[in-house]
Every structure is written in structure tokens, then in C-alpha cells.
Design goal:
It catalyses: L-lysyl-tRNA(Lys) + a 1,2-diacyl-sn-glycero-3-phospho-(1'-sn-glycerol) = a 1,2-diacyl-sn-glycero-3-phospho-1'-(3'-O-L-lysyl)-sn-glycerol + tRNA(Lys). It comes from Ligilactobacillus apodemi DSM 16634 = JCM 16172. It is an enzyme of class 2 (transferase). By secondary structure, the chain is an all-alpha fold. The chain has one domain. The protein contains 14 helices and no strands. The chain is globular.
């Protein structure tokens, strides 16, 4: 990790501690201690296990994508990729550091940059698509449950969905209507010509066109592997299922057993969509507020709500970050690319 990243990590840990201290300011210390004492630790273990299985599913996706050219790529080295992603997503605004960090980790393992980019691209497209599908389903199932609580955040929820959907539409346009997308991009960039210096405009124009060209070249491989895309889509759905179910087990650990599994998962999907809009790394502040606001529906005790929020953040945010720190110091095995004549199975 660079010095800048270490500082960002330290700041996020301090911010997390600060948010927790702020959250407990009006909560009885005795009540909080009693709630911790009465926790059903078995369900906490299950919640951690679900997070671990979610990370494992992502590692299996990586391994599956590497199977043809790197058939002996181990599951242990595959696990490094989502863990390192979790770390750098957690310390960069809008989770922007996860993709470059994964690319670096794959190159460390001997995967050439071009192949690594293709793998991460396919993984990103599938993940975004599954996020959008999950959100559409949950929007119909659960938006009415929280509409009266979210108010302004309800607008953010829809805005978050529009952004994710726009990303998918943009990627599909490049994949299937390349020439049209190039013309549309040039048209959209034209107004900025009035406000930007000619050199800067040319630089941005060149950079965007290079990214479109690179994506299109990589997408040609994706379009020829429908079976592979279907397989990793199913694995990604399982990955998201394990992630979205975590709050349900946290509530059971707090002995709040009058909740519906489907309802809790639906609300968690909506929370995650809201978090993605906050520019602060990890959605710090917004994540805790959203969770507390929405899950107050099930928890009527202030101390239990704060404890549920803390456990949720430890499992879904800090667990992956600390796992990523461990993954960074473990040197991966160097793999040799194997050229196979057979098709992707």
C-alpha cells in the first residue's frame, strides 16, 4: 500500500470510531452492555460465515474466468482478488480504487494486463447487471415499506438505480452499437468544448475514446462466451444472496425474531443502493444513517439498533478491509499462461 492509501485507511478507521461514538451518545451504557451480553453469538457466526461465502463466490467467479488460460490458478490466489478489492473499495471515494487494485493483484500472479482487464470487465458487467436485476425486484417488493421513512433519500434511491442502469445501458451500447456509441459520445462531449481549454478537451476526448475502444475489443470475447456468462451470473446471484441476508442473522442474534427474511433482504438491497451514491469511502455516515433509519422498523430499542448497525458495519465493511490487508502481504504464486485449443466450457 502507498503512503496515501495507508493514510486513507487510518482516516476511515478513525471516522468509523467517531461515527460509533456519536451514535451511542444518547444510548444507555448499561442497556448496551446488557444487549451485548444477551447476544446469540451463534447467529453472529452465521452472519460472518455469509460474508465469507459471499467473498468465496466472488473468488470462484475469478477462478472460473481464468480457467481456460490459467487452469491451475488456485482458489487461495483467487481469494486475494475480492479481498484486495474490498480493501481499496473501502478507502476510495465511490469505490473507485477496487478495479485498479484487482488488476494489479492479477498481474502480480502472472496474468497479463490485457487478459486481467478482460476478466475484470466481464466480472464488472455481470455484477452490475445482477445488482440492477436485484434492485428492480426489491423496488417492487419493498419500496412501500420504507417510502415514509426515506423522504429525500427515496429520491437518492431512484437516482442510484438510474446511475447503475445507465452504466449497464452504456456498456451494452458499446458492445452492440459501437459506431453509434462513438458518435453519441462525441455529441455529448461537444458542449464541453466551450468551457475547456483545447488541450484539455483533446486529452479528455482521447482518453474516453481509448476506454470505449478497449472495452469494445474486450466485449468481443464476452459475446462469444454466453455459457460462461450464464455460469458466472448464477454464481454472482448466490454471492449477492449471501451478502443481502446478513442483516437477518444480525437481527436474530439480537433476539429480534418477528421479522420476515424476504423483507429484511429487500430492505438491505435498497440500503446498498443508497450507500453507492455517497462519495465518502465506504459510504461512511450515510451507510450508518440509512441502516439505522430503515431497521428501526424492526428494532424498538435504541441500544439494540446501534449494536445492530455496528455489527453490520464490522461484517460487511471492516471484515473485508482487514481481510484485504492480510491478502496484500501474502505473496501470490506466479502462473504461466497456457494456450488451449478447446473452447471455453
Amino acid at each position: 500500500m502507498s503512503k496515501k492509501n495507508k493514510i486513507a485507511l487510518a482516516l476511515m478507521l478513525l471516522l468509523g470510531i467517531g461515527i460509533f461514538i456519536y451514535s451511542v451518545r444518547g444510548v444507555s451504557y448499561r442497556a448496551l452492555v446488557d444487549d451485548i451480553h444477551n447476544l446469540h453469538w451463534g447467529w453472529i457466526v452465521v452472519a460472518f460465515l455469509c460474508m465469507g461465502l459471499s467473498i468465496l463466490c466472488e473468488a470462484i467467479v475469478v477462478k472460473r474466468l481464468l480457467k481456460r488460460q490459467f487452469p491451475d490458478f488456485s482458489l487461495k490466489d483467487s481469494l486475494r482478488i475480492p479481498l484486495i478489492e474490498a480493501l481499496f473499495n473501502g478507502i476510495t471515494p465511490f469505490s473507485s480504487g477496487g478495479q485498479p487494485a484487482q488488476l494489479f493483484a492479477l498481474v502480480q500472479s502472472g496474468v497479463d494486463a490485457g487478459r486481467a482487464t478482460s476478466i475484470l470487465l466481464m466480472k464488472f458487467v455481470v455484477y452490475q447487471s445482477m445488482i440492477v436485476i436485484n434492485f428492480i425486484v426489491c423496488l417492487f417488493l419493498g419500496f412501500h415499506l420504507i417510502a415514509d421513512k426515506l423522504h429525500v433519500m427515496g429520491i437518492l434511491l431512484i437516482f442510484g438505480f438510474v446511475i447503475h442502469l445507465a452504466v449497464i445501458i452504456g456498456l451494452l451500447l458499446i458492445m452492440y452499437w459501437y459506431n453509434f456509441t462513438k458518435k453519441l459520445t462525441k455529441l455529448c462531449l461537444k458542449p464541453f468544448k466551450r468551457f475547456l481549454a483545447p488541450a484539455r478537451y483533446e486529452r479528455y476526448d482521447k482518453m474516453i475514446n481509448e476506454k470505449i475502444d478497449n472495452f469494445y475489443r474486450e466485449s468481443l470475447t464476452m459475446k462469444d462466451n454466453y455459457k460462461l456468462l450464464f455460469q458466472i451470473s448464477l454464481i454472482t446471484l448466490v454471492q449477492l444472496f449471501f451478502y443481502y441476508i446478513i442483516p437477518y442473522f444480525i437481527l436474530l442474534a439480537l433476539r429480534v425474531d418477528h421479522v420476515s427474511l424476504v423483507t429484511v433482504m429487500t430492505l438491505h438491497v435498497l440500503i446498498v443502493m443508497i450507500i453507492s451514491l455517497f462519495p465518502i469511502p465506504g459510504g461512511a455516515g450515510g451507510a450508518e444513517y440509512s441502516f439505522s433509519l430503515i431497521f428501526s422498523t424492526f428494532v424498538d430499542s435504541g441500544s439494540k439498533l446501534v449494536l445492530a448497525m455496528l455489527i453490520w458495519r464490522i461484517i460487511t465493511y471492516y471484515f473485508g478491509m482487514f481481510g484485504g490487508m492480510v491478502a496484500l502481504v501474502i505473496s501470490p504464486r506466479k502462473y504461466q499462461r497456457k494456450t488451449l485449443a478447446t473452447k471455453e466450457d
